[in-house]
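Hi everyone,

Forwarding the result from last night's run.
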Amino acid sequence: MNAEQVVLESFSRNARVNRSLLGALTSEHLNLRDPAGGWTIGQHLCDMIDFRRGWMETIAPEQTEKVTYLHTMLDERTFGPRTQNLQEIQQILDQADQVAVEAVQEKLSADAGFQKVYESHPLMFLQHALVHDAHHRGQILMVLRMNGVPWTESDGPMWAPWRE
């Protein structure tokens, strides 16, 4: 694989890790939060998805409408997922990933970077998403543990894509 293929494959594996995490969650988990007052799991998922939509507005505005925001405002300062249906959340994330990859591949084909951000190489957007997702997955796992949810992921399906 060349470097571009490695990043695209890493992003694909990242999507499978996200799918595995979502597949292990229940709708009840979405309302769990860090006892110290941090975000709920649902809010972390909102940020993972809405990150893609937000950056699409800058890097590929013509693609923006293809990506749905997950969040809804619950009051002036609080947001949460507009659905508790994990399958719907997964579909929104899958669509966001697909549109992100399409936007990157379009720039790769044109041998161009994005304008305003990720100008050095379009794959930097996917790299940013990988790091961003890993941060939120770690936060989600921490919230689960802090709320007493047993999680034995050390040898679970979230690791499977990285063993290939």
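The chain has one domain: 3-163.

Cheers,
N.
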